[in-house]
Amino acid sequence: PLTVDYIEKTYAAGKIPGSFFKREAKPSEHETLTSRLIDRPIRPLFPEGFLNEVHVVIHTLSLNPEVDADIAAMVGVSAALSVSGIPFSGPIGAARVGYINGQYVLNPGQTARKDSQMDLVVAGTEAAVLMVESEAQQLSEEIMLGGVVFGHEQAGIAINAIHELVRDAGKPVWDWTAPAEDEAFVAKVKGLAEEKLRAVYQIRSKQARTQALREANAGVMSALKEGGEPFDSGKVNDLLFAIESKIVRSQILEGEPRIDGRDTRTVRPIEIRNSVLPRTHGSALFTRGETQALVITTLGTERDAQRIDALAGEYEDRFLFHYNMPPFATGEVGRMGSTKRREIGHGRLAKRALVAVLPSKEEFPYTVRVVSEITESNGSSSMASVCGGCLSMMDAGVPMKAHVAGIAMGLIKEGNRFAVLTDILGDEDHLGDMDFKVAGTTNGITALQMDIKIQG
What we know:
By secondary structure, this protein is of the alpha+beta class. The protein has three domains: 168 residues, Ribosomal Protein S5, domain 2, CATH 3.30.230; 71 residues, Orthogonal Bundle (Arc Repressor Mutant, subunit A), CATH 1.10.10; 183 residues, Ribosomal Protein S5, domain 2 (2-Layer Sandwich), CATH 3.30.230.70. 35% of the residues lie in helices and 27% in strands. The strands form four sheets. Strands 4-3-5-6-17-16-14-15 form an eight-stranded antiparallel sheet, with helices on both faces. The chain has a five-stranded mixed sheet with strand order 7-8-9-13-12. A hairpin with a 7-residue loop joins strand 7 and strand 8. Helix 2 packs across helix 4.
């Protein structure tokens, strides 16, 4: 139960809001992305079983356009959580890293970033990196890894400062311990569910597996009701999820086939169709396993460019990437309305991956809008959007500098045993310990996003 809200006030830059009502309204795309950026490294640091609502609010009250507020916000959140005394395995530090003239640069401002081949944000504790978000100009793996290491080292300065703050001004640490488990009830649920769930995870088709999983869970619930013992259905669902997680993880670590029958290195079958929509400027249907993206490119004039009135200054954006994932893509019923945080985040990641290979304004003076419609999803839909986005722009005649592809990797770790998974499924994302998305060309990396779900 964690909510992070990053809010920019226009007075921070000496401006008045441009809307009809002349006041701040819904969060901008930048505010949403920054909220996600802060949420990702702090979420895994709360202990399991800690169910108190935690709401983190960051107000940008004054802004120097050459000093990004997102890094200051992450460090400020880390400090606030650390001094509060609530159960939190922090503090974390954060840093932005640029790569200019063959040198790593710490926290480059707006002006310096124009000459940088890399824009990388890294956050983590003293012991480990927890989150990386970056875009790059087709750089090598060694340079990207060096940037992560450099950023993590520099983030240690902020962590040490927070330790000093906690020592001088920290509130008493909460006397909190995780609630004790009812061992007898856990054993009862395990006895009812384990064999059924093992059989479920031998089913290779996602839809058939999901249906069998629902039936198995319903069977456990009805068996408990017949037993006449009162129980909390939410707690039972948590126990069932823990059993599922243990089954899937142990199978992979023991070298058995993954959920869909693959080994750890195999990519799912890929199918590509171009020019699928007759009236659009460019389109591509990219399918990888049970994940499919229909990606459409539209070309416009300079007048179609998006004018963004950001706090740090107004600018025009000639490349727009929009990602949409309706509920039916995962076989669910849900509400469709305004763009969700996740959709904004995935769209920005795909945009980061492709922007490095776009032609200059002089070569191709058009505004380009790419829309990715996810028609079905079983993991890695943002990377399917990258692949489909590149294909649809080529179909529209955009002279790309290189071809871009992306893939999502995962990690399962228990003690000293670990397994790295190629092209992860949705279930492997939920049950695993890492989500690592990388996109690039044959020359190098253009975008990298990593989230560690364990404490390093």
